[in-house]
Design goal:
Elements (H helix, E strand, L loop, with lengths): L8 E2 L1 E4 L15 H13 L4 E5 L5 H13 L4 E7 L2 H10 L6 E8 L2 H8 L3 H18 L3 E6 L6 H13 L4 E6 L6 H14 L7 E6 L6 H10 L4 E4 L13 H10 L6 E2 L7 H12 L20 H9 L19 E3 L5 H10 L7 H17 L3 E2 H13 L7 E8 L7 E8 L2 E8 L3 H13 L4 E9 L8 E9 L2 E9 L2 H16 L13
Parallel strand pairs: 1-10, 2-3, 2-9, 3-4, 4-5, 5-6, 6-7, 7-8, 8-9
Antiparallel strand pairs: 11-12, 13-14, 14-15, 16-17, 17-18
Helix pairs in contact: 1-2, 1-10, 2-3, 3-5, 5-6, 7-8, 10-14, 13-14, 15-16
Bound molecules: 3-methyl-2-oxobutanoic acid and zinc ion.
Length: about 525
Amino acid sequence: MNTKEQPKEKLIIFDTTLRDGEQSPGASMTKDEKIRIAKALEKMRVDVIEAGFAISSQGDFESVKAIANTVTESRICSLSRAISVDIERAAEALKGANAGRIHTFIATSPIHMKHKLQMAPEQVLAQAVGAVKIARDLIDDVEFSLEDASRSEFEFMCRITEAVIDAGARTINFPDTVGYSDPIEYGAMIKRLMNTVPNADKAIFSVHCHNDLGLAVANSLAAVQNGARQVECTINGLGERAGNASLEELVMAIRTRRDIFPVETRIDPVHIVPTSRLVSSITGFPVQPNKAIVGANAFAHESGIHQDGILKFRETYEIMKAEDVGWSTNKLSLGKLSGRAAFGARLEELGISFDSKEEFNQAFVRFKELADKKREIFDEDLQALVSDVQLGTGADDLTVIDLEVLSKSGQLPHAKIGIRYQDKDHRAEANGDGAVDAIFNAIEILVNSETNLQLYSVNAVTQGTDSQGEVTVRLEKDGRIINGQGADTDILLASAKAYLNALTLMRNPGRLHPQLGGV
Ligand code: KIV
Ligand code: ZN
């Protein structure tokens, strides 16, 4: 190992969990959930948080705005296509930000320009420059992305990059939009661009890699070795299709192999595991056990030889310390005797706030109910409980008022359910192939949603048989996919909540997708 440290350059960590991450089918998040994730990212010292795509829906606009008004230590960014309405909407959402950024983009590959945009390269160039100028009139910090850069023609990329830097873009991003590149090719592309574009020194070169071939992190690291000084990434590698480069893998690779990387990040890694859990619990996307850094087995040693080695000298089989990335921060938070003040203080430490006193009171009542059923309440329990309260409070939310399930061997399970919707109570009962099926059938008698159930999964929030079960239900209707969540120590009740949550979300209008033509 090379022990002689060279002075390090700064690598900007740009997190897009709330934007590209939310483009994972079914990973939509509410405003409150996005604020909680943004606060966790801020605590982790992420440099730039892409909080959303303001024009895509009223909900996204409100989320970007709320995050811009709440987070002070990270720069807040909104995505916008290279058109004035998008850019103006992004600027409006970012008005309250301590430090804001508009990220505007247009596709530059022949395949996208011809088939998606139906524009000539010269038109694309003119539109890119125009968009950056409009954005710069509204905000100081403008990032420009050449969508599908890895499949774009080199000469054209150079021209457009030079022109948008002249127009005032401070960061130029070269996405591997379809996850097509490989580390040697992608690293060489970044190096060649930096050496060819005459005003390259006036901007930060950034990368944004998708994981279609499982190379997103490798490609990003190759780009860093070749001069990129911003990486775009997401918690748990969430993102469109196979996802984006995972923040935790990038950050820990750079930290662990500081002998080979010429850069350092500001990230405080101790917040990595709690943030990963928060994102997983909010989106309902479980983390695979063998996932690097944040998977349950990432620091578990099964083989006797390995265990023996670890006991003799940890570094025989471990290149990182589990506690450095937050594995031991599974804090025992509160118990049955904890009062309102202790509950409120712990929520504040976790970055959780409520819109109203009534919501806080509801959460406190739920906490007391949970503490009656479960002796030890951990931070994960509080996160799950708060998600549950925040999801079920609107009059237009479908909520469970009571549930009775009869399940006896040799007989078909039977469920009776009461649901509240717009202040009215509705009841139904049904049989099913299993207890959960009976519950969903009873709900369908009332709502007749015409949705298809695509996924049903249960995860234990903490350890032990008294753990809350966190249920994810994925529904599909007319191509739209929605994930619903529910948590309870009773997994049948959690299942009913998750199904109703998915149905509630399904009623909200969909968001505009950033990669739509529309320019
Ligand atoms: O993958 C991509 O190209 C993007 C851009 C909008 C930056 O997400
Ligand atoms: Zn992307």
